[in-house]
């Protein structure tokens, strides 16, 4: 509906990308090899990101889309100029750890990588765009995986502290919004992608995952402390893959299952925002024989250095049931759920639920009472450009319109405190889940296909001018 209430003054409209899905140039500028580089497109992708199949280097049988991605490493100035043309107030991006520390455990950073991001941030600032920087968006140096076992090893906490200290010092005054780890709850579903975990034969997988989770939670708390020490203006957020679970029906068992599934998503955010492991998680791990690897002082660090805001991705809601006969599942952001018969779905089977977005925001705000930042929301779809590269993506506009209007309701009707909104994949990029290019999210079309063919030419879609209008009216006109 046109002329709805506007969003709060200073609301941060923008878009989001991740280094491994857009930069390419995997071996340029002194960059080292990362876990996200060696994940191919095709049937082996999921077993690899789940830590079930070993892929520590490239082979000749697979295509690795992150190697070249959309070559944003070389085109970022032009791409950011297009974001500025849309009116972006913020641009969420991530830093490739291996551009700063190629192996991950060096004592001195790679100056070429530091200079690269410095110029990128200055380009943003030139247009009045605030960078929102994800420190680790599924990136883990391969050397740290091969030599130390990834995040199951406590030493990575120290390496991460060194990384963030360098970043906060070098980019003081250029960046003030930071996220520590992308979708931290994804470790339970994609442990190689989320924490560099490949499971050896006979290993206790659950213990290894919770070792890694604890180490990332410690690293996040330490990063929050260092960020505030180096620059009191810094604001640090956590980040989860969100989307509330509904009970399939009003059977109490289904209601309880939904509560249990929601808690699985919220458990680590509880630690990052409240400063301690919640009792329900401690009891669950006790039953499962999992020991949290606390060292002396860990509990105090977690308690004293909680995050300033809660950021999250939202693509769809989910459904819980105890009924084993209900085998009709839907696709989703890595983890699937039972199908909701009341919802439509995208071409990739992700269910579309704008009201679920409002419900999720209310649940998060009720739970944490900290500002929220929507850092991923969007529709992956097959786009068919005309001869000029123009795409009439009314389906994307409709999806985003409904979700932005639902966010407007959450803010103006429900009183939820939301800092900003960055659509996922504001420029077409490689899909994290499938590795595809044809699953497009952007306002800007990039001429590249799943096999890596194409000119990489950028062109505006219909949604480009639509989003420009939304930002110009501060969310009041979404028609």
Automatic annotation (TrEMBL):
Its EC number is 3.2.1.86. The keyword Hydrolase applies. GO terms for biological process: carbohydrate catabolic process. GO terms for molecular function: 6-phospho-beta-glucosidase activity. InterPro entries: GH, GH_1_N_CS, Glyco_hydro_1, Glyco_hydro_1_AS. It is an enzyme of class 3 (hydrolase). The keyword Membrane does not apply. The active site is at residue 376. GO terms for cellular component: cytosol. SUPFAM superfamilies: (Trans)glycosidases. PROSITE patterns: GLYCOSYL_HYDROL_F1_1, GLYCOSYL_HYDROL_F1_2. It comes from the Bacteria. Keywords: Glycosidase, Hydrolase. NCBIfam families: PRK09593.1 (NF007158), PRK09852.1 (NF007356). Belongs to the glycosyl hydrolase 1 family. This is 6-phospho-beta-glucosidase. It comes from Culicoidibacter larvae. The gene is ascB.
